[in-house]
Predict the 3D structure of the following.
Amino acid sequence: MQASLAELVAALGGELVGDADCRVDAIAPLERAGPSHISFLAQARLLPQLATTAAACVVVRPEHRDAASARGAAIVTADPYLYFARLTQWWAQRVRARPETGIHPSAVIEPVRDGPSASVGPLAYIGARRRIAAGACWRRRPPRRDAEVGAGTRLGPRVVFERGCRIGARGLVQAGAVIGGDGFGFAPDQGSWVKIEQLGAVRIGDDVEIGANTCIDRGALDDTVIDDGVKLDNLIQIGHNCHIGAHTAMAGCTGVAGSTRIGRHCTAGGSAMILGHLEIADHVHISAATVVSRSIRKPGHYSGFFPMDDNARWEKNAATLKQLHTLRDRIRALENKP
């Protein structure tokens, strides 16, 4: 799909600076945007990327108007992140296929009122005294339109493998796993939340095993990527736009927040928590229940957890805790003085 900048501004508002006839065919982050993409600048720390991005158009705040227009077209708005959220919704409405209306012959439906444009998919069950509104879509298994499953890969009972997702050869996805559900993305708007449509997918390599009830979210713009040989235990959450390197293994209940990149041959113990937008080097091993709150640039074994407290007091205590080893050495040196 292509859209002109004039169409976008007519639909979503904002002040257009530059060529109204310029056409874009995708939304992309600044660092990966190409000359046919539209991007956005929502955080001041990403301002250096504005000068280097190849995006045809960038959505910016008024204070960044001049910098943005110096390199190409721009849409100026008070809240670029909120504009981005609404842009994803506008885009999704035009590129996503609508489900076919009607009731599949294999569906089991007790007496129920259904809307004229409702869609009830294969093997769905709907109990009595339910009402399906017009335009509703009810499926036991979501559509697998454009999904790809490689040779020898097995999907267990109740696995959900969403549109556009791909998995390579010799994989195993155990019961109840959800591949390609929407990532957790919302833009704040005057006390409420505006959904950011997740326009990416999930790409999974060869020889990957995914445990029961594990969830791997689809990307917001780029795909979420699980490389060859990755092993994920049960009840793991992988956020949108993460990249998990080859042959990394994670134990049960590990959580990885969005846009984190984890290297090759890493491990994470059970209930480890890895915050978003971090970089984890190859050959990093994280102990069970460890909270990783900063990027890890060097291989090694990392551990750490700390009791919950009032945030300001917790930060002071954590800073002191990091100095305990040095303080111990200083005390020993003082004790050994004659």
In short: The longest strand covers residues 37-40. The helical segments are 5-12, 47-52, 65-69, 80-95, 311-322, 324-335. The mean pLDDT is 89. The chain is about 15% helix and 30% strand.
